[in-house]
Model the fold of this input.
Amino acid sequence: MSSDAVEIAYEIDELDAKKQALQKENEKILVEISKLKSTDRVSEIATNELNMVRSPETKVIFIDRQTQQR
Done:
């Protein structure tokens, strides 16, 4: 092998190692994002840190568009 080929092979190995490290870091970040977006976590922060309270009931109003157009 020529010295250029050896250098290129070494550079490829380094880049592969960096790629694997970045992929592992990316996986960790995705897990962390998932944890932070958890509805349980958001609810806990809302009630414990922001002193918010959950509404006792949910009201849903349905509007019949056909009736309104007449």
